[in-house]
Amino acid sequence: MAAVNNAMTADFLRSAYGGESMAHMRYLIWAELAEKEGFPNIGRLFKAIAYAELAHADNHFKVLGEQKGDFTVPAGAIFGVGDTVTNLQGGIDGELHEIEQMYPVYLETAKFQNESGAERAFHYALEAEKIHAKLFQDAQDLAKQGKDMNLDTVYVCPVCGYTEVGGPEDNCPICKAKSSIFKAFE
Ligand SMILES: [Fe+2]
Ligand SMILES: [Fe+2]
């Protein structure tokens, strides 16, 4: 396991760990609400993406490796218990923040500081979040019409959080892991 040598990259890893941990939990909460509202497939999408965020949190945590200690971790977190359309907007906003602001900056910092483990973890998350934003948008377009998604099995790569509806392809397009290890949400 690569050590992290630079304080700023370590701070970013801890913050990203915090953000992903909260996204994981928030999506599980919103999944339950979607199911109660009569959108079981949107609920399943939330659960699948929650698992992808767990993979991201796991990567960030493990890259920090030997950096033990007690830290206060500032991290972006969206709050709100609403209807599914509103909760999906929270999902879209959170993913877009990660795609447009957070991960590009974290990734460039990791590159600049020659932190290869962090660079990989941030790259994996950035690429997966792009898919999540799109899937949440598709879900919201339907939910606005009062419709659930027509959703095939959702596959999630446990290494990088790549998320695919249907398929899967032979290898993960982000991290090249064998798709036989993907977790299926059906
Ligand atoms: Fe995501
Ligand atoms: Fe992957």
Automatic annotation (TrEMBL):
Domain of life of the native organism: Bacteria
A molecular function (GO) term: oxidoreductase activity
Alphabetized UniProt keyword annotations: Electron transport, Transport
Keyword field contains Transport: yes
Keyword check for Transport: yes
CDD domains found in the cross-reference section: rubredoxin_SM, Rubrerythrin
Listed SUPFAM superfamilies: Ferritin-like, Rubredoxin-like
Matching Pfam families: Rubrerythrin, RUBY_RBDX
Start and end residues of each Ferritin-like diiron domain: 3-147
Cofactor(s) of this protein: Fe(3+)
Record's protein name: Rubrerythrin
Organism for this UniProt entry: Natranaerovirga pectinivora
